[in-house]
Design a protein that fits this description.
single chain; 183 residues; Uracil-DNA Glycosylase, subunit E; six-stranded mixed β-sheet; 6 strands; binds uracil
């Protein structure tokens, strides 16, 4: 029996394994299909996500939703989450010990969903799951591990440099192709 996403979310919502558990308004476990073929993993919730408990609903999230839609994907059919589930104060980069405390939840979510392809959005996700530091060098190609991983730019980085948009778009399309291919 696969563990249910609801059970994992319940634990995340009650979690105090690191100090972010005390400063958050809402934890953000993630949302989407429990049977998603494609999973997207960002860095950490921002202000709007912390207010609502939903992933990627701020400016970066609206861009991500649009790029998914342009690729013919809905938010409902994929699963969207982040490496850490609580907002760091002032959106600072998550600390190593916060990532260490939170990663077991993400690993359990991956096991529960068992997606064919995982898109890693930005350096924190790429480093946490693949040990890859340079997104620009790693993006655009599949990494075959226990499943297929694709590294790409975080939508917030694309908002800061719109020239990166075609790469994000291309990488999401590659993820879709590999996730939905017959073989
Ligand atoms: N950025 C992330 O990495 N995750 C979110 O949920 C929102 C913004």
């Amino acid at each position: 029996m696969r563990e249910s996403l609801e059970e994992i979310a319940k634990e995340i919502n009650a979690c105090t394994k690191c100090e972010l558990g005390w400063s958050r308004n809402h934890a953000v476990p993630g949302e989407g299909s429990a049977n998603a073929k494609l999973m997207l993993i960002g860095e950490a919730p921002g202000r709007e996500e912390d207010e609502k408990g939903k992933p990627f609903i701020g400016r970066a999230g609206r861009l991500l939703t649009q790029v998914l839609s342009d690729a013919g994907l809905t938010r409902e059919e994929v699963f969207i989450t982040s490496v850490i589930k609580c907002r760091p104060p002032n959106n600072r980069r998550p600390k190593k010990k916060e990532i260490r405390a939170c990663l077991p939840y993400l690993r359990r979510q991956i096991m529960a969903i068992n997606p064919r392809v995982i898109l890693l959005l930005g350096g924190v996700a790429a480093e946490s799951l693949l040990g890859i530091k340079r997104v620009g060098e790693a993006r655009g190609k599949p990494f075959k591990r226990d499943r297929v991983y694709i590294v790409t730019y975080h939508p917030a980085a694309v908002l800061r440099n719109i020239n990166l948009l075609p790469y994000l778009s291309e990488d999401i399309r590659l993820g879709k192709t590999l996730a939905y291919s017959e073989t």
